Amino acid sequence: MPAVVRFIKKKIPIIPAVTWGFLILYLTLRPKSASDIISLPSWLKGLPIDKLAHFGFWGIWFLLYGVFYLNRIEFANYNTLRSINRTFIKERNYGIVVMIIIGGVIEVAQHLLNWGREAEWADLAADVVGVMAAASLFRKS
Fold first, then answer.
1. C-alpha distances in angstroms, 105 versus 26, 40, 102, 110, 135?
2. Which tens digits make up the pLDDT trace of 62-73?
């Protein structure tokens, strides 16, 4: 593992997820312009690219949270295992809830700000599925 990754995991484990979260906020809340419209190849026409992007961005967000923040806990010994598991589950669920709430707030903001962005419940559903798919990879038993 590179020294930079070790340093981030040990000293500032939440920074990658926070940085990705700000990128999501920027991309989803900035005013829409003509340059945002992407011409897709004919073989991609009809695919829900927007929903796949939401799924991917929110999934990556939780993966960063999980890899850097949740996996920072090392099992010291058997006596602390139960306490660590409770803390892990609580922090995993906290991350899930916070990311889903932020997804909902973004959709409401897109509707209220009227900057050319469209608020869709399907976007929020894709966010939730992306977060839950990534969260399913982080379980302690």
1. 13, 29, 5, 9, 20
2. 999 999 888 876
Helix ranges (H only) for the chain are 3-11, 15-29, 49-64, 81-113, 121-135
Q: Which residues contact 49 (CB under 8 A, 6 or more apart)?
A: 40
pTM of the model: 0.85
The pLDDT-based confidence of 76 (bands split at 50, 70, 90) is very low
Query: Whole-angstrom Cα distance, residue 138 to residue 67?
Result: 9
Which DSSP string corresponds to 9-47?
Answer: HHH-TTHHHHHHHHHHHHHHHSPP-GGG--PPPGGGTTS
